[in-house]
């Protein structure tokens, strides 16, 4: 037998053995074969991808909750050992942020996203019978992911939506198409090996804006969940479908004269620098009472911030990082502070993590969501002016705001007046996403924060129908009349 024939024989034997192993290890999903496409959830066309996801969902919808838990556990077990390499791959492809922060965010998404446990039914009984509420799937959910958190969003959204009994069509951002495809292919491998199910999350071989628009209007897409800029969120909102929109923000951080300035300075620098400020929840400007402004700036410098005082240099930063259309330049989004300073030809010493400077409230670096470690500081004469200014610069996005204060009425007033989906007192804003810079999690993971549509930090329940069942002769242990 020649070498080439031997190789073919070996490949055939291995393929047959792997097929037997797969059949043994995974419980059968259906009697009919599911569509293959290019394999592991990747398809050439929107129609093929949605058809495969729909077929999978119709099978999945009939599975018990224990099956859903098995799917989620397969995702956790599969991705768990690879978070560092995924973080590095995201950094390499997008060029944004830091590997250490991405690893923390991935860990948060994988192990801190609530799942099936949120779907316990609600039951009310009384003399008039019984009413029960249960949470059931929508079907195939059309998802659009960002380039800032591509891997994290695949994990977070998949766990939430699959826990709800749905399947997903994932529209990858072109700037993160490689890592997004890798995540989806491997997620499907992990789930198929554990359960036999294929095409739980589907995507396209070549993602595009046109394919996202086609997906949004596809009759078999039951609802939309969009994490991205205002334009794509707007497209979802006018699609005629139920849409969850995670839009823009410009989170202000307020500091009043009662604040613990040491803690405030540390939290502001650490949180702004985390993943080079690409989190939409991250502090984008500081609004501080004048009486503590100088002390705050001094303490921020001691914590790693670099203060720019030359007005020409500040103007250079603005001109360089903001495009003519008023949006931040992608060349500098998520880049290190030193990269931005070097590009602006601003001399510095050490290794600054954040660039700070004083500015008026109408400065473009204050009013624009920059997504880079640039943190302007606006001073106001008193707390009333601080709060009013913070409301103005937040821009009505209702996304995120924070305050550093030891005055409880100030905290209460600010939380009420800001009316944001996320409000943080005396801490870094990334805490509200469930991640800590020290690796400890402080709440459920939140990567799709639906501010335009009002759901706020989304959970599994967000992606289910709340259905009501009523029985006038319902069951009750309290009373029984024959």
From TrEMBL:
Gene Ontology molecular function: oxidoreductase activity
Keywords: NAD, Oxidoreductase
Entry's EC annotation: 1.2.1.-
Entries under InterPro entries matching the protein: Acetald_propionald_DH-rel, Ald_DH/histidinol_DH, Ald_DH_C, Ald_DH_N, Aldehyde_DH_dom
Disordered: annotated segments: 17-40
Domain of life, per lineage: Bacteria
Pfam (any one): Aldedh
Domain Aldehyde dehydrogenase intervals: 44-430
Keyword Oxidoreductase recorded: yes
NCBIfam families: PRK15398.1
PANTHER family with a match to the protein in the record: ALDEHYDE DEHYDROGENASE-RELATED (PTHR11699)
Name listed for the protein in its UniProt record: Aldehyde dehydrogenase family protein
Lineage of the species this protein comes from: Bacteria, Bacillati, Bacillota, Bacilli, Lactobacillales
């Amino acid at each position: 037998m020649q070498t080439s024939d031997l190789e073919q024989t070996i490949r055939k034997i291995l393929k047959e053995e792997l097929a037997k192993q797969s059949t043994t290890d995974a419980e059968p999903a259906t009697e009919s074969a599911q569509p293959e496409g290019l394999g592991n959830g990747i398809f050439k066309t929107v129609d093929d991808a949605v058809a495969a996801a729909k077929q999978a969902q119709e099978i999945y919808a009939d599975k018990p909750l224990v099956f859903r838990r098995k799917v989620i556990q397969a995702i956790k077990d599969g991705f768990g050992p690879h978070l560092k390499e995924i973080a590095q791959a995201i950094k390499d492809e997008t060029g944004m942020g830091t590997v250490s922060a991405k690893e923390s965010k991935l860990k948060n998404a994988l192990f801190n996203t609530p799942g099936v446990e949120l779907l316990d039914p609600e039951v009310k009984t009384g003399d008039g019978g019984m009413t029960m509420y249960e949470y059931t799937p929508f079907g195939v959910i059309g998802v659009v992911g960002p380039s800032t958190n591509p891997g994290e969003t695949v994990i977070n959204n998949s766990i939430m939506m699959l826990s709800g009994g749905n399947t997903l069509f994932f529209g990858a951002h072109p700037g993160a198409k490689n890592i997004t495809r890798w995540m989806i292919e491997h997620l499907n491998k992990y789930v198929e090996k554990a359960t036999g199910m294929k095409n739980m999350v589907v995507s396209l071989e070549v993602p595009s804006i046109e394919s996202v628009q086609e997906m949004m209007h596809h009759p078999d897409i039951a609802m939309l969940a969009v994490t991205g800029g205002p334009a794509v969120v707007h497209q979802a909102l006018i699609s005629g479908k139920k849409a969850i929109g995670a839009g823009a923000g410009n989170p202000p951080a307020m500091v009043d004269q009662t604040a613990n300035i040491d803690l405030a300075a540390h939290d502001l620098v650490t949180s702004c620098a985390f993943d080079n400020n690409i989190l939409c929840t991250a502090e984008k400007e500081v609004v501080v009472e004048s009486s503590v402004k100088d002390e705050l700036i001094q303490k921020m410098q001691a914590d790693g911030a670099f203060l720019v005082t030359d007005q020409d240099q500040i103007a250079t930063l603005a001109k360089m990082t903001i495009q003519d259309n008023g949006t931040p330049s992608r060349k500098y989004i998520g880049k290190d502070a030193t990269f931005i300073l070097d590009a602006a030809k601003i001399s510095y010493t050490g290794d600054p993590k954040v660039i700070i400077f004083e500015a008026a409230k109408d400065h473009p670096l204050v009013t624009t969501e920059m997504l880079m470690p640039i943190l302007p500081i606006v001073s106001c004469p008193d707390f009333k002016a601080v709060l009013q200014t913070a409301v103005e610069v937040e821009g009505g996005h209702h996304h995120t705001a924070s305050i550093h204060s030891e005055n409880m009425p100030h905290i209460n007033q600010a939380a009420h007046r800001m009316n944001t989906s996320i409000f943080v007192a005396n801490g870094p804003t990334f805490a509200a996403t469930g991640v800590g810079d020290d690796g400890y999690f402080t709440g459920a993971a939140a990567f799709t924060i639906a501010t335009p549509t009002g759901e706020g930090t989304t959970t599994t329940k967000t992606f289910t129908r709340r259905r009501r069942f009523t029985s006038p002769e319902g069951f009750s242990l309290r009373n029984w009349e024959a």
